Amino acid sequence: MTAQANAPVWHGVHVATALPFHDDLTIDYDAYAEHVRFLADGGCDGVCPNGSLGEYQTLTADERARVVRTAVEAAPGGFHVMPGVAAYGAAESRRWAEQAAEAGASSVLLLPPNAYRADRRAVVAHYREVAKVGLPIVAYNNPLDTKVDLTPELLAELHHEGLIVAVKEFSGDVRRAYELAERAPGLDLLIGSDDVLLELAIAGAVGWIAGYPNMIPRATVELYRLAVAGDVEKALPIYRDLHPLLRWDSKTEFVQSIKLSMDLAGRKGGPCRPPRVALTTEQEAQITRQTREVLAKGYR
User: Fold this and answer.
1) Which of the 8 DSSP states describes residue 211?
2) What was the pLDDT predicted at 103?
3) What is residue 107's DSSP assignment?
4) What is the pTM of this model?
């Protein structure tokens, strides 16, 4: 575990878990439970099931609920589960937050409404509705995919109203960390994209909702620990070694990329459900080469 004792449950390294499927694309729940335990053994602090990396958009309601229950049941003591509760409407997101609470999750990760380009009032109303459940909410800012930008000003408004405790920042704009700290000093910043880990850690992040720890948890947890401690001298060489892979976390093919790297590392990555398609021959060759180079350097 990387988070300090008695730290808030959303601090530290939470892995946005990839979801293993059988060859017929049904969920392999046993393999998923084993993966949760593997990440805990690797020093991570928790998991985020039903995020984009977990292909939640392709799951039935029953599957989505069972994934959360599987994660909670597999989690050892002190290992936290932060399910994604994104949905087109606030009422549905609230129901998923209620399900998470019933299953024993400790917090939830919530995108803004993303069926359309929601304005400020709609975003605030969305978070107000889900906050009624009572679980701590980590906002998820991903303007590239949702087209709704949780700006520092809007995040400060949500925080000052008591609706959110932290933000997973995926805009890629590391400059926002400083404005956010000025506008909302009590709002926790979580690294949202693997390829800006060092930059946001230096800027004061207290957590990382992560992709590539699915493949190499121990090495990436060590990198995170060094980065948040400000030990740039030791962190930078590791960051440089891993960055060719970490960059895939912010590309369209991030799910396929991370799953392929997992396969090459001896984990169960496996196929994706449609509409995601197979990597191109060129992409597969590049990720394979980069993954093997990382493994050859001893990172696990």
Assistant:
1) S
2) 98
3) -
4) 0.96
Backbone angles phi, psi at 225, to 5 degrees: -60, -45
In the numeric block, which tokens belong to residue 103? 């299953």
CA distance 190 to 142: 13
Is 243 strand, coil or helix? helix
List alpha helices for 111-250, DSSP H.
120-131, 143-146, 152-160, 176-183, 197-202, 217-228, 232-246
Asked if 215 and 185 touch (Cβ cutoff 8 Å), the reply is: no
86 closest CA partner among 147, 130, 125, 132? 130
Q: Are 50 and 64 in contact (CB under 8 A)?
A: yes
Of 36, 31, 30, 18, nearest in space to 80 by CA: 36
C-alpha to C-alpha distance for 64 and 67, rounded to whole angstroms = 5
What is the rounded CA–CA span in Å between residue 18 and residue 12?
19
Q: What pLDDT was estimated at residue 6?
A: 80
| Amino acid, res. 286 | Q
Counting as low any pLDDT under 70, the low residues of the chain are 1-5
Measured CA to CA, the distance from residue 24 to residue 41 in angstroms comes to 29
